[in-house]
């Protein structure tokens, strides 16, 4: 009798930290469940990850030259280069798998919907994993309604407290300032705005939509989203599933999706701090700040008199290396109460008993990780889904305060 072959899934993340982390965790979970997995990284990112031996890794071009910035505003060039350059390469790659290892299913990121065209053309079933929050996905989906109602476009930063009533399920919640950042683009023909609207509608062509959220958190919004997709799977928070399946800790040979090297010295530093005394400060992987903003936070942190653990990524300050620039009058307070690292093991940090608060940019992974760790948030959202996530934190889930646009 012919032996039944193991299904072989290819996972295609969008090549940014906040997308790679949950996709890699999904890959590990599916591998534990018996699927054969190929994880498709970009050439640019591949060397930066720690790959688990259980997963097969392949690489593909993101379509940009090697020296093109992949953080800050220029990251958005990837939206277009993947459609132009990566899409035909993706087709060639799918056809290049040997006959005894064909790709039998694809899971692609929710802003890589070019993969649906290729998969359907080759007759391969495809599912979409959208790594943003459901509340943000629903707001994107309602952009045509917002335009029809005259809520969009709006000029610059005018009248940002004006109520927005045309997103069903959020009629009494949103103000202009709470809409996803692309809604601040006053030109409706802007290619980035068009890109997100197109992607949000196009993903409904896949066999199903997977979201890194859970019903207890976003049920009312999920009930609006559900009818627009063939199948909806809420599998979050995905970082907790991997741990639960393995007992309390991840397997030692699990992949690590960090694109920066983790500085674990902060864990020892936390050990000597009192229960819930430390403010953890991190703005994720994409946000960049001006030097003035960095200094303003610095003064606030030092003058608060509280211990703080601050992630200052090498590329946090636009065009600058943020390290080694402690102003003389802050140095004492920083040494005494502060610990600064270039990149932290964030999930572990948030779970540490010494951490009592999180000053965050409200990225979706950070928000979920903080909710699960039970750490209240001070939200300073900057881009993408962060503005709407922070509104839900302060007004719906009530586990933090929102200081956007202040
Ligand atoms: C941004 C978004 O705002 C997010 O919602 C969207 O889905 C992707 O783009 P990012 O800025 O990377 O993502 O933030 P976030 O979604 O919070 O993801 C950051 C990830 O990096 C988290 O999983 C966090 O644990 C991890 N991280 C961050 C570290 O491991 N160490 C750090 O020092 C900082």
UniProtKB/TrEMBL annotation:
Tree of life domain: Eukaryota
Annotated TM spans: none
Keywords associated with the record: Glycosyltransferase, Transferase
One Pfam family from the record: UDPGT
InterPro entries xref list: UDP_glucos_trans, UDP_glycos_trans_CS
Classification via PROSITE patterns: UDPGT (PS00375)
EC number(s) stated in the UniProt entry for this protein: 2.4.1.-
Molecular function GO labels: quercetin 3-O-glucosyltransferase activity; quercetin 7-O-glucosyltransferase activity
Record flagged with keyword Glycosyltransferase: yes
SUPFAM superfamilies in the cross-refs: UDP-Glycosyltransferase/glycogen phosphorylase
Stated family: Belongs to the UDP-glycosyltransferase family.
PANTHER family (alphabetical): GLUCOSYL/GLUCURONOSYL TRANSFERASES (PTHR11926), GLYCOSYLTRANSFERASE (PTHR11926:SF1392)
Protein name as catalogued: Glycosyltransferase
């Amino acid at each position: 009798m012919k032996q039944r072959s193991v299904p072989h899934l290819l996972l295609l993340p969008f090549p940014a930290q906040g997308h790679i982390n949950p996709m890699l965790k999904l890959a590990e979970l599916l591998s534990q469940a018996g699927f054969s997995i190929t994880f498709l990284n970009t050439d640019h990112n591949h060397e930066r990850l720690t790959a688990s031996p259980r997963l097969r890794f392949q690489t593909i071009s993101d379509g940009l030259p090697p020296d093109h910035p992949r953080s800050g505003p220029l990251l958005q060039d990837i939206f277009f280069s993947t459609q132009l350059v990566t899409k035909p390469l993706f087709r060639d790659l799918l056809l290049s798998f040997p006959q005894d290892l064909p790709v039998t299913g694809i899971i692609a990121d929710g802003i890589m919907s070019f993969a649906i065209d290729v998969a359907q053309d080759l007759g391969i079933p495809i599912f979409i994993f959208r790594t943003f929050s459901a509340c943000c996905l629903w707001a994107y989906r309602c952009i045509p309604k917002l335009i029809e109602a005259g809520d969009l476009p709006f000029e610059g930063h005018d009248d940002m407290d004006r109520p927005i009533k045309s997103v069903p399920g959020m009629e009494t919640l949103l103000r202009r300032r709470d809409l996803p950042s692309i809604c601040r683009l006053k030109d409706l023909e802007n290619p980035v705005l068009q890109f997100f609207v197109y992607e949000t509608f196009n993903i409904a062509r896949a066999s199903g939509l997977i979201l890194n959220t859970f019903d207890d958190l976003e049920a009312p919004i999920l009930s609006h989203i559900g009818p627009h997709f063939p199948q909806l799977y809420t599998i979050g928070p995905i970082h907790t599933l991997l741990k639960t399946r393995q007992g309390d800790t991840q397997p030692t040979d699990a992949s690590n999706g960090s694109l920066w090297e983790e500085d674990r010295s902060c864990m020892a530093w936390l050990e000597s701090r009192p229960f819930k005394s430390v403010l953890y400060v991190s703005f994720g992987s994409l946000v960049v700040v001006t030097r003035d903003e960095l200094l303003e936070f610095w003064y606030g942190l030092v003058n608060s008199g509280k211990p703080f653990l601050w992630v200052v990524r090498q590329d946090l300050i636009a065009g600058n290396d943020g390290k080694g620039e402690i102003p003389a009058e802050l140095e004492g307070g920083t040494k005494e109460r502060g610990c600064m690292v270039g990149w932290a093991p964030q999930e572990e940090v948030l779970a540490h008993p010494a951490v009592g608060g999180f000053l965050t940019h409200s990225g979706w992974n950070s928000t979920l990780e903080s909710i699960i760790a039970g750490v209240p948030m001070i939200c300073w959202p900057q881009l993408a889904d962060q503005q709407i996530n922070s509104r839900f934190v302060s007004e719906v889930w009530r586990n933090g305060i929102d200081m956007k646009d202040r």
